[in-house]
Design brief:
This protein is α+β, with helices and mostly antiparallel strands. The protein has 18 helices and 9 strands. The protein has helices at 6-19, 24-31, 35-42, 50-59, 64-68, 75-86, 90-94, 108-148, 154-166, 176-185, 222-233, 242-260, 263-275, 281-288, 292-307, 351-354, 428-434, 462-471; strands spanning 189-193, 202-205, 210-214, 312-317, 322-327, 365-371, 374-385, 388-397, 412-414. β6 and β7 form a beta hairpin. 28% of the residues are buried.
Length: 477
């Protein structure tokens, strides 16, 4: 086959034929082919063998090299080629449209308009298709930054300390009254409403300095309010890309945790627990009246900085999929080819999965796991959420387990993941018994296939938000 683009070569053959003043029939007679077959060649609908190209070049009083390496095409030929190529793309095929043949009667303007529309569609689909990968790459970079700094943000710790000092906080759990005082200190008032848009957890009106939150969740709104206030304190605005979105969430969540569990009291508390060899995420949680996940997150902020203990953190859905992850203890999380962790399936022998299978699902579960990177101790607890149950796990190297409550567990399992024989391949007897006799109907996670919402990176229904603010704004007198 001739190593050339069939469309371009076909147009050059036709241009040379027209230049010589040959009709399609005359040219067909010269090369001994039917006019219909010549049209197929000139329209770039089939590749040419070298011998065919040499016969055509001879009939056109030129050489095959000249045809293959001719100069620029006319504007019309170039436009026709672009138009035909656009109709051969998977996108065009997916639209279910008939192929539009290129004829003299087809105007340049019509082809240009069609190409513009197809170009816009291509850009739209490309953006949507790239969204998950762009987000994953941004998350990969963010996790590397967290690992480098030991998941400790000194500037955010100082910001939390300043806010707490401003409202006279001394010690103990940060109450909702204290949160309200922080809001008032920043000039905000809090308002519980029954019509908060579904896609939001809170809405901040920066003109009238109001924070709206759902009336149905007021009793557990400390974190929601603090996250909204944190965004204001840190000067956050609508994210410009996925990296910005993820960074904002990390920083607002961190500042919220630093207020709910202040470093000034949390660090001494943890150091005292370490000295007693009685570090416990459950006790840490109970001291400040927060969720186990919040306490585990906060522990990962302070463990390396104040206790010199490298740790890892995991939030895993009951299906086994990783939702959140952090490590600076060299544990090997499951990853895809690019190093992304979120969405990957955790080994079933890890504590994060075993906690779902034991009668210790209520309360804290601990175990040792021999992994390819070494032996690790891990403690896990199950919490429920809108999408099901989740395990929250904190772990560390075997040598550091001596500081933790639960280190005396006798449970010790082995994990060879990512080796498929570890837990991803069924036993041969089961394959033989059921392999050809089973057909599971998968529970499809629609979010895996859905395109990200357009308009904003957050997926918030902006129309609903603005209509909400308008409803809650009194008309001017």
């Amino acid at each position: 086959m001739v190593p050339n683009d069939a469309l371009t070569l076909g147009r050059r053959i036709r241009a040379r034929r027209v230049e010589l003043g040959l009709s399609l029939q005359e040219f067909s007679d010269r090369i001994g082919k039917a006019p219909s077959r010549v049209s197929v060649i000139e329209n770039g609908q089939r590749d040419l063998r070298l011998s065919e190209l040499q016969d055509i070049a001879s009939a056109l009083d030129t050489s095959s090299d000249a045809l293959a390496q001719s100069g620029e095409l006319s504007e019309r030929d170039a436009l026709e080629i672009e138009f035909l190529r656009a109709q051969r793309t998977p996108l065009y095929a997916s639209l279910g449209l008939p192929e539009i043949p290129v004829r003299k009667s087809l105007s340049d303007e019509t082809m240009q308009a069609m190409l513009k529309l197809l170009g816009e569609l291509t850009d739209l689909h490309s953006t949507r298709a790239a969204t998950p990968e762009v987000a994953r790459l941004a998350n990969l970079q963010l996790r590397a930054d967290q690992r480098e700094r030991g998941n400790y943000f000194e500037e955010l710790e100082r910001e939390a300390e300043t806010l707490l000092r401003a409202v006279g906080y001394r010690e103990g759990p940060v109450s909702m009254d204290t949160v309200k005082q922080i809001a008032e200190h920043l000039g905000f008032t809090l308002h519980a409403v029954t019509d908060l848009p579904y896609s939001t957890r809170s809405i901040t009106d920066s003109e009238r300095m109001r924070v709206y939150l759902s009336a149905s969740g007021v009793s557990r709104s400390r974190s929601v309010v603090l996250q909204a206030l944190a965004a204001h304190v840190l000067g956050k605005r609508e994210p410009v890309d996925y990296g910005d979105l993820l960074q904002q969430r990390v920083e607002t969540n961190y500042l919220t945790g630093a207020i709910l569990m202040p470093e000034s009291s949390a660090a001494p508390l943890l150091r005292a627990s370490k000295q007693r060899r009685d570090l416990s995420i459950e006790e840490f949680r109970g001291h400040y009246g927060v969720t186990y996940e919040t306490a585990a997150h906060r522990f990962s902020n302070l463990a390396t900085q104040h206790l010199e203990i490298p740790v890892h953190f995991l939030k895993v859905h009951e299906s086994g999929a990783v939702l959140k992850a952090y490590e600076n203890d060299s544990v090997l999380f499951p990853t895809d080819a690019l190093g992304n962790v979120e969405g990957q399936i955790v080994c079933r022998w890890w504590s994060a999965r075993q906690v779902f299978t034991t009668d210790q699902r209520i309360g804290t579960y601990s175990q040792y796991t021999d992994k390819p990177a070494g032996t690790y101790w891990c403690t896990s607890q199950v919490e429920s959420g809108p999408g099901g149950s989740y395990s929250i796990s904190v772990g560390t190297k075997f040598s550091e387990a001596k500081w933790f409550r639960g280190r005396d567990t006798t449970v010790r399992l082995r994990s060879d993941c990512p080796n498929p024989s570890c837990c991803r391949e069924p036993e041969e007897e089961l394959v033989e018994r059921w392999g050809e006799r089973s057909y599971p109907s998968a529970r499809m996670n629609s979010s895996l296939l859905a395109a990200m919402p357009t308009g904003t990176f957050t997926g918030v229904d902006r129309v609903a938000v603005l209509e909400f603010l308008q409803r809650h704004t009194p008309e001017s007198p």
